[in-house]
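pinging the channel bc i need a second pair of eyes. not urgent but kinda urgent?? the chain im working w is below, pasted from the shared doc
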Amino acid sequence: MLPVEVAFISYDPRAQMAIVFLRESSPAGDPPVPKVATDDSGDEDESRLLPIWIGLAEASAIYTKLEGKEALRPMTHDLLVTAIDTLGASVKSIMVHALEEWVFHGRIVLDVDGRELDLDSRPSDAIALALRADAPIFVAEDVMEGSAISESDIRGIDASMDSLKDALESLDDDSYVKV
């Protein structure tokens, strides 16, 4: 499993969905993540990004936490963290562990009295929960390998969301491998 962080959120107007981008990161105290070689010269480029299309409600929950804003009343993910804490458990980590038929699958790992409990989850809900619980986020190597893009693939794109979508669509079919 590779450690990742939420890099940013964008919007795909054609699909009317948000996209959360997860960036490879290094665990605390480890050396920086190796860069991705993007051409035959061996020149290194930025870290890989994993784009995951998500619903607008989940994007709002992720964005709200990233911006450090608090809702007047607890949002669903805030309520879930409170319930987990109240029951004496904690969110140990979350992971994006599979991509099947173009759908990403997530897991929430809870620590319940020293015992690990795995819960099936949409990655978007798991990410929103991890941000609220200060839990690490991981992606399976095969998922990252098969679906990631480099930061240079989206660098220089202006604010137009159509440009972002066009850039993502222009990637060749070999950029996306069915896992």
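so The radius of gyration is 17 Å. and Confidence is low (pLDDT under 50) at residues 34-43, 156-161, 175-179. — does that match what u expected or am i reading it wrong
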